[in-house]
Amino acid sequence: MKYFNDHPILFRVLFLAAAILFLLLAVMSLHHSASFQTDENLFVTSPSRLYVAKSFPAQPVKTQAREEEALAALDSVLAGDLIVLVNRQEYDSLSQVQRLLAKLAPEAPLELYLTRPKTNRKMAFRSSKSALPEGCLREIPASVLIKEIYKDGASDRAGMLVGDLVLRINGQKFRDSGEADRIMRRAEAGRAIAYEVLRDNRVLTLRVNLARLGASLAAFLGILVGLSFWGLALFLGVSRPQIHAARILAAALLVLSFPLLMLLPRAPNPGFMVELAHTLKLLCLPLGFAVMLHSHAYFPKERPELLRRKWIMATPYLIAGLAFVFSFVRVRPFGEPLIFGLLALGLFALFVHVRFRAQCAVDYKKQNRVLKWAGLTASALSLVLALAVMRGAQDASRVGFFLFPLVLIPLAYLYTIGRYRIFDMSLRLGLNAQYLAISWFWGLLLFGGFVSSLFLLPGLPLAIPNFRLSGSYLEIVDDPLPLEQRLGAEKIVLMIFAIGLVYLYRRFHRTVQDFLSRKFHRAGYDYRRAVNELSELMATQLSMLDLAKGISRKLAEHIQLKRVGVLFFRDQKECCCQQAYGFDQEEWKEFCITIDQQLIETLQKFRSESRFSTEYLPPDLKEQFQRHGFAQILPIRFKEKLVGVLMIGEKLSEAGFQQEDLHYLTAVAKQASLAIENAFLYEELAEQERMKHELAIARRIQLASLPQTTPRISGLDIAGISIPALEVGGDYFDYLNGKPDQITVIVGDVSGKGTSAALYMSKVQGILRSLHDFGLSPRELFVRANHLLREALDRNSFVTSIGACFDASTKRLRLARAGHLPLYHYQARTGRIDKLTPKGLGLGLDDDRLFAAELEERSLSYETGDVFLFVTDGVTEAQSEHGGEFGEESLTEILGKSVGEPADCIRDRVVHAVKSFVNNEHQHDDLTLVVVKAV
Description:
The protein is built from 27 helices and 30 strands. It has about 950 residues and is of the alpha+beta class. It has five domains: about 1-35 and about 220-425, no CATH class; about 40-210, Pdz3 Domain (Roll), CATH 2.30.42.10; about 430-460 and about 495-525; about 545-685, 2-Layer Sandwich (Beta-Lactamase), CATH 3.30.450.40; about 705-935, 4-Layer Sandwich (Phosphatase 2c, domain 1), CATH 3.60.40.10. The strands form seven sheets. Strands 4-7-6-5-3-8 form a six-stranded antiparallel sheet, with no helix packed on it. A hairpin with a 2-residue loop joins strand 11 (about 190-200) and strand 12. The radius of gyration is 51 Å and the shape is elongated.
């Protein structure tokens, strides 16, 4: 089985399949055995066909009869006895005996061995030929002997007696008990069949109504024991397949469970599967004991002194195999092979125990103590019950009575595994389980007593006085009442007694149950008072810390909890307050740090739940919560916003939460949500004031980072402006002036707006200013900037930009566009407005190679009067109150009308037109524009 150390899943599958197969076979056999018809008696093949027709005196030689019975019997050999041996010889017919007697002298001694059917005893007598009366013996046909009759059964109701010899069934003869049983089984259940019986030398015909066999209480008890073995085996085999010792113990329990599940006798013509099940039972009985002996070398601890000796491991299997083979082929040199095999296994186990007891480890003896005493106790009780119940009868259906104490063995294994955490299992029986077990046991015991009392009531001797109602008088008379009136009076008295019993049992049950409730912390609580106390607490505590501390303490006090945890969340993102009851502070802090963010993310997924068990948490989070003793989680929400959570441990009583508990906890969560939100509102007001102040400072800083003065370049008139949509924005423009007659104008737009866009804008502006010191062209400037921004920008952010280098001495312009809006160029000579759109991708979107390949730099000349307009999408995409956009047409139209004015006037005209278009609508995006006019 060590192969399964590396393949535990395979063992689990095979073991589960074997357990299910055993159970199915047992169920099939049980159904087959419990559903066939029976005459409710036990008969065996008659030991002889020589029947004593007349009694005659004889000297008892050896008898099992009591001494007074022997002395009282003048005729020692009685009519109805069956002669088995004559002078130690077996004879098949009466003629053979007569020939023997003919050869003997009149006073020749005779030794007679006989069976007395009525008492089921074998006896021996000494007599002589002359003492035998004429016709004292007769030869009867093959018959079966009735050895036992079930009380109130079909045969008992028909008048059949123990000791009767059945000669024919429904007029049919038979050779032995097996053939007689088959004749009986072929009859239809519920219909009468004729039994021709010989009793006191008279032949009687009895009509027996066959009944269904069903399952006796004894068989049911035995099957329950088998299910306890089977259940423990399944639990170990499925839960711990990776442990060698657990696999062997599980296999032993499973194999032993099968014979216990197959207690009912095999029915005639059972079919292949039922026959297979009964054959398998013969194998499992000795094999189970062998595997159990094997498991003792591993459980509860390994015993190296046994494992080193292979013969100790192999011998039990050899004995079990021989016992099975001898039983199967019916070789019986020493009696019943199975019994002999089990005795041999027991003697071998005793030998090993005595031989190696001194080498056994102290820990093994300590952990095995309960198992040892449970085994001895179960064996002793089974033996006592066997002697008390069986009383020499061979009825297999009674076996379950004396096997029932064996249920102590799986219970002892469970206790040992849980007590010493063997196989890494903790099977501690909690307070709640103890309470339920005791309550159920007490209830069943009381119910059994009540039902028994009801059955005893009708048998009580009721001395009811003779009374008669005469008008309005009640008379006591001497004459007995008529039967009908007496029966009515007895029924009334019995009803009164029954009502009294109900009252007494109910009061007794309530008294004991109240005691158990107090003992196991199951008493009720006043939740209305608890809610009022918490309401007062939440109304008076303004501090987050005091509020959390008060909630945790009150919850633990009211519901009798082992531990409570309270967390408050700010903006559904971070834990801002944490308090607990029943926790070590260091352990609590470490726990909160471990589960903080993951718990918030998980609670967001349970928006529709007011509470849920920790079983629904992700595996790693679930393990943390359960390891720290939390069972229930109650999110605290204010208008669907997560503001906190209550983490509830189990009760001191270890009982489950009742509906009233959950209603109380839900009410606490609702009240706490308002108190927490109020505290947050006070904090948020202060925080907003602080943030407003800081954003104002950030706006001043950002505006200060934009060009505050316009460089003076001969031949160029320049004006620019940037207006953020919020306090800070992501648009920017800059003038990079490296030479007296040259200037590079940069306009850019960072994706998004607000604080994050402003931070990226500052980073982009700093990079471009640093790179411009190397005298780069607009294209080279953007290529190098893209290399740096690829690592600096978030993957979801990018920058569009346009750059133009003006050389006033040559009136030339070099232009590069990184995904930005076009440059609008008014040509004074033609009066046209062109859109200059060289190819290019946004900064930070693609790698250097692709970016450089797509980026185009265009060079062109300009003349005096030409106007260049740089804008961001906050200009062209400005929206009116009706949802329309300002658009490029409006922009070029304004540009065309104002080209004769200075650059700052053109700038102001565009800004004024955009604001007029937007009217009172909120500015949706940052607005930036730069005007360059050749003069």
